[in-house]
Write a structure and sequence with these properties.
The chain is an alpha+beta fold. It folds into three domains: about 1-15 and about 40-90 and about 230-255, no CATH class; about 95-220, Jelly Rolls (Sandwich); about 255-420, Sandwich (Jelly Rolls), CATH 2.60.120.1600. About 25% of the residues lie in helices and about 25% in strands. The protein contains eight helices and 18 strands. It has helices at about 5-15, 45-50, 55-60, 65, 70-90, 235-255, 255-265, 405-420; strands spanning about 100, 115-125, 130-135, 140-145, 160, 175-180, 190, 200-205, 220, 270-275, 285-290, 295-305, 310-315, 330-335, 345-350, 360, 370-380, 385-390. α2 packs parallel to α6 (about 235-255) and α5 (about 70-90) runs antiparallel to α6 (about 235-255). The longest helix has 24 residues, at about 70-90.
Length: about 425
């Protein structure tokens, strides 16, 4: 681990890095740096907790990974991603003046964000009354869920607002009220606000990036006047404390997830991953497994295709569960990007270099990582079979009419895919 790099980050965050004295001690030993103590209550605790975060993350990994300079720097990057994501929330979240802020995405790449999904969240007070309004758009999915603590009382079940199912006017505009109790005589769209809900999260899932339109969305609190007075010192200090805890949680939660799958024996094979019980979307089914590929090897991921299916995807991550860069590489495929073969089977090839197969997932230099797939609102949930083959023998294991692309066609596909994605409103 480059401790000087991370120490520099912590010092920069503190804004008060001490300058080492330039005068050596008489006996020739270097002078010790003076210990800086901030006048800002809570700041030293915050910076102190950050100082060894990458090392605590590395401690969860096997020795070979802990000692790998490449992995060390990627762990430091993920710590920064967690800090930046949660720092934005610490600065901007406000249950009295809420707005939907970015949470995880291609820059805040913590916890394996789905390549097709843009995630935003807004802080709420479960005792409040909120109004959601905007234009529905035409995404495959735009679903707002209430976030509650694990094992919290959730009324009749976790509430999700699927924008494809709310009422809209002729211009496609919706208007939804959230509150603990439905107001007497209210005839518009209403959703019960759960007793312990503290946040709303919207997942905006695009299947055809270039053609689908993202929704617009605003949120306002109705049971208090529109205003935001100066935040108290106590509130700001509390946010610092919460921030350090949230950064820890985010950075440490999944850093060893891929390694755990390897330890369970799920290398180049897949298992069901139950995330719905931990707050995932109802109707979504996940499967995943670690992969391990040599430069001359490929994996064929093969499955049946559900007859009815709202959405499907397959993505890759690296060894610490960051989603592999899908903006600049073909490292994710959904139903509009990967078609089944003529026999009805879906086959996707994972390889370190382009095999010329249209349905290719690019590891982008990560010889080891994770494969994760999902079926959303499908009439079946097949778990694919994974077959490792020599790259030079790949065609012998695929149907004769497997769709192929030239290197020039691949570049054109990736350029168009990148343009379509960066035009989506991530921020």
């Amino acid at each position: 681990m480059n401790k000087r790099l991370w120490g520099g980050v912590a010092a920069l965050a503190a804004g008060a890095a001490a300058i080492l004295p330039g005068i050596a001690r008489a006996q020739g030993a270097p002078a010790a740096a003076p210990v800086h103590k901030s006048a800002v209550a809570g700041w030293d605790d915050f910076v102190g907790k950050l100082a060894d975060l990458p090392d605590r993350m590395l401690a969860r990994l096997p020795e070979a990974m802990r000692n790998d300079p490449q992995v060390q720097q990627e762990v430091a990057r993920m710590a920064l991603e967690a800090l930046t994501s949660q720092g934005l929330d610490a600065i901007g979240s406000d249950a009295n003046a809420p707005e939907f802020l970015p949470t995880i995405n291609y820059m805040f790449n913590v916890g394996q964000p789905n390549a097709d999904t843009i995630y935003r969240s807004a802080a709420i007070d479960p005792a409040g009354t909120y109004r959601l309004r905007g234009k529905r758009g035409s995404l495959n999915q735009a679903i707002i869920s209430q976030v509650v603590p694990r094992n919290a009382e959730t009324g009749t079940g976790r509430t999700h607002i699927d924008l494809s199912k709310v009422k809209v006017d002729r211009q496609g505009r919706f208007d939804v009220l959230l509150s603990r109790v439905k107001p007497a005589g209210y005839k518009g769209d209403w959703q019960e606000l759960r007793p312990q809900a503290y946040r709303l999260m919207i997942r905006m899932v695009g299947a055809d990036w270039a053609k689908e339109a993202s929704p617009t969305l605003s949120i306002e609190r109705l049971d208090k006047p529109v205003a935001r007075p100066r935040r108290s010192a106590a509130d700001l200090q509390a946010r610092l404390k919460t921030l350090s805890n949230m950064v820890d949680m985010m950075a440490l939660m999944f850093v060893d997830h891929v390694e755990k799958l390897r330890a369970e024996g799920y290398v180049n094979k897949l298992k069901v991953f139950d995330i719905t019980s931990a707050g995932g979307l109802v109707g979504q089914f996940y499967y995943e497994g670690a992969y391990d590929l040599g430069p001359d090897e490929a994996l064929i991921v093969e499955s049946d295709v559900p007859k009815v299916c709202r959405y499907r995807s397959l993505i890759l991550t690296n060894e610490i569960y960051e989603t592999t860069d899908w903006y600049n590489n073909q490292s994710s495929l959904n139903q509009t990007q990967a078609a089944p073969d003529s026999d009805g089977k879906l086959r996707i090839v994972v390889a370190n270099r382009d095999p010329g197969v249209a349905n290719w997932l690019d590891t982008a230099g990560h010889a080891k990582g994770l494969i994760q797939g999902r079926w959303m609102e499908c009439d079946s949930h097949p778990v694919p079979v994974v077959t490792k083959v020599k790259l030079g023998e790949l065609k012998a294991h695929l149907p004769a009419d497997t769709k192929m692309v030239t290197p020039e066609e691949r570049q054109a596909i990736i350029r168009e895919r990148r343009a379509a994605y960066v035009q989506r409103p991530v921020w």
